[in-house]
Design brief:
184 residues; yfbu gene product, domain 2
Length: 184
């Protein structure tokens, strides 16, 4: 309550040269104080959501930024190849969000998308489905393992396929690329 009142008081001051955005702070006070540490490192000592969960979510969002950006740079033939090999995603390589049962990750992801500039492009589309957290984690493991070899950050179609197909649980993968892939 005190922080909320201070944001109201701060808005009324004639000079606001502190670098702290009172609207951002006020939004974070309602269940997302963890994000204050990201925007203003060292400001808070305790966070509502664990730093580990928030870090995992932003790592997943960073992975999707890289996937989407690189996919857009592929030729039309390469995009067709990705769609054929990574059937779970079809012709759309775009951030799918988290399944509703992964509530904490989903809430942190949604708040980060609304409040942190790099991820705000995800907000312009309506996320219709969600990917299970385990699928995001398998993809992230594949992404992190190839990250040192990416150079300037652009992936090949094969690397995108490797990351996207990691979403499918290993027990559900088919050996043949002609066989349909199971859900994550």
């Amino acid at each position: 309550m005190i922080l909320y009142l201070l944001t109201q008081l701060f808005r009324s001051l004639p000079s606001k040269r502190s670098g702290v955005d009172p609207d951002f702070v006020e939004a974070a006070l309602f269940g997302h104080t963890w994000i204050l540490e990201w925007k203003y490192p060292g400001l808070l000592l305790d966070r509502e959501h664990s730093k580990a969960v928030a870090g995992e979510v932003t790592d997943i969002l960073d992975m999707w930024l890289s996937l989407e950006g690189t996919y857009q740079q592929l030729s039309a033939n390469e995009q067709i190849h990705v769609a054929a090999e990574a059937k779970l995603f079809g012709k759309s390589v775009s951030y799918p969000g988290f399944e509703p049962r992964d509530k904490e990750h989903g809430e942190i992801g949604e708040f980060a998308i609304q409040q942190l500039e790099p991820y705000q492009g995800f907000a312009v589309r309506q996320v219709q489905r969600g990917l299970p957290l385990d699928a995001h984690r398998r993809m992230l493991t594949a992404f992190v393992s190839m990250k040192p070899h990416l150079g300037v950050g652009l992936m090949t179609a094969s690397q995108i396929i490797e990351i996207l197909t990691a979403a499918v649980h290993p027990s559900q993968r088919k050996d043949s690329s002609d066989a349909p892939r199971a859900r994550a």
